[in-house]
Amino acid sequence: MKKLLLLGGLLAGFTLAIAGMENTLPNPKQAKISPQEATSSAKSQVGGDVLGYELEDEDGRLVYGVKLIKDAEEYDVKVDANTGKVLKVEKEEEEED
Predict the structure, then answer these.
(1) Which of 76, 78, 75 is nearest to 55 (CA)?
(2) CB-count burial class (<10 Å; 0-12, 13-18, 19+) for 58
(3) Tens of pLDDT along 26-73?
(4) b/e map of 19-31 (b: 16 or more CB within 10 Å)?
(5) Between vectors from CA 78 to CA 77 and to CA 83, what angle results, nearest 5°?
(6) In whole angstroms, what is the distance from residue 45 CA to residue 85 CA?
(7) Which of 16, 31, 62, 85 reaches 20 to 30 Å from 25, CA-CA?
(8) pTM of the complete model beyond 0.85
(9) d(Cα 83, Cα 57) in Å, to the nearest integer?
(10) In this predicted model, what pLDDT tens digit does every residue of 15-35 receive, in sequence order?
């Protein structure tokens, strides 16, 4: 009986944890600029071609993370999802095997 109660408690906790994670995903409706505007801002700053983008929550701030490639180098550009302003440009480091 104790094992059954313990298992039930663990399952309930796991379910709540998953439900909590779903609520922390950024809501695209909260972004004031479109993904196309974000990628355009990133390209105007760095140049190159867009590999992809995603809407992210960075320390409570809604941003688009835009991946670009230019001259065989990858860049991660953070664009404010409300203003379209480029916040940060990071050149991705090459991984060594």
Answers:
(1) 78
(2) middle
(3) 888 899 999 999 999 999 999 999 999 999 999 999 999 999 999 999
(4) eeeeeeebeeeeb
(5) 130
(6) 10
(7) 85
(8) no
(9) 15
(10) 545 445 555 678 888 999 999
